[in-house]
Amino acid sequence: MIAPGGTIGILGGGQLGRMLALAAAALGYRCHIFSPEPGGPAAQVAAAETVAAYDDRAALHAFGGAVDAVTVEFENVPAEALERLARQVPVRPGARSLRVARNRVGEKDFVRGLGLQTTPYAPVEDDGSARAADRLIGRPAILKTQTLGYDGKGQVALAGGDDLHDAWHGELGGRPAILEALAPIEREVSAVVARAADGQVASFDPVENRHVNGILDVTLAPADISPALAASAQAGAERIVHALEHVGVLCVELFVTVDGRLLVNEIAPRVHNSGHWTIEACETSQFAQHVRAVCGLPLGSTARRANAAMKNLVGADVEHWRTLAADPAAHLHLYGKADTRPGRKMGHVTWLTPLGAPPPEPPWPPSKTTS
Ligand code: ADP
Ligand code: MG
Q: Which residues of the chain fall short of a pLDDT of 70?
């Protein structure tokens, strides 16, 4: 166990690292941020910062020597960096969680191997596999890069007449890709779960996620789905963390189909944007829970104290901070990012309603202003 007073090393310097560092501070821990960019959202609230590339071996070694455990807020940290650090300190979650979650084909193969469902998919890696995928998946479909996609980037929708070869070599630059059948989505939900090193797990209530332009716009907690479907989403997430021997928080994004099936879309092996509502609405936030798992403390209660709506402040949305700050019901979070850019997550705001009441519809700003 890492006792309070110890130092948690965080790879990645964005808003997830910032909220982890704030939760760690509340429990008496210090955080040391490793990021290629100086002065980011996490470093602004952390005790120490290393500014270096993820393949800078000397910097990684010094960082590993300065911390008691290492975690990630960003899943695309090179596996080699994690493997090097793991020789010095506990790395939680381990390299396996990141390896599985990093590649869309490997991720779907993995969850199918656990008996969970996904939309039909096939790899697109050369002309032969592209032809086979085209035949197998048909249209409508979505072509995605296998790695490094986020917020809808690295994806092309393919309708009836669209040529797979053109889209793959054009928009995706011929990089290894996956062709997925377009799922008949009724709504999108996610399940956030934590696993401790001793195998204890704790799930938060599944939530509904609404996206605008491929970016999460609103999360409603709890998701308005049947108790059976909610239990099944949680059970799936728990199966995944056990199979990965994951330590820490993990999020599973799922589709509920129009015919009531649950399909796994993707895994994020870390705290997740769809879990931000837990800061105000749960006994233990996803960030405090992750700190507990990383440090070997008992997991906290995931009980929901209120219903919640979380709205991301994307790009120019953040300019409305004065109005939000004046709303007594709004729990405003700003990430300290210097430059506002379209599509950039600048902050979020959470509104609560009492248990039993419907989740609040975010009163402001309206979703259509998000772009
Ligand atoms: P990202 O890593 O960018 O979040 P996702 O795979 O989650 O990538 O895709 C982003 C969004 O695109 C999803 O939340 C969903 O709305 C839509 N989408 C992705 N894949 C499919 C699919 N196979 N069928 C229908 N919609 C999809
Ligand atoms: Mg996603």
A: 363-371
Output the six-digit token pair for 331: 């729990």
Give yes or no for a contact between 156 and 167, defined as CB atoms under 8 angstroms apart: yes
Indicate if ligand 1 lies below 6 Å from the C-beta of 183: yes
Q: What is the pLDDT of residue 369?
A: 43
| Cβ atoms of residues 76 and 54 within 8 Å | no
Do residues 113 and 153 lie in contact, with contact meaning Cβ atoms separated by under 8 Å?
A: no
Looking at residue 365, its pLDDT comes to 57
Check if the beta carbon of residue 130 is closer than 8 Å to that of residue 112.
no
Residue 322: which residues within 8 A CB-CB, separation 6 or more? none
Q: Is 205 in the pocket of ligand 1 (CB under 6 A)?
A: no
Q: Quick one: 367 exposed, middle or buried, by C-beta within 10 A (0-12, 13-18, 19+)?
A: middle
Structure tokens at 178: 């996956």
Say if CB 29 and CB 291 are below 8 A apart. Answer: yes
Instruction: For residue 283, report the distance from its CA to the centre of ligand 1, in Å.
Output: 30
Does the model's pTM come out above 0.85?
A: yes
Q: Is residue 106 within 8 Å of 126, Cβ to Cβ?
A: no
Distance CA 177, CA 78 (A): 19
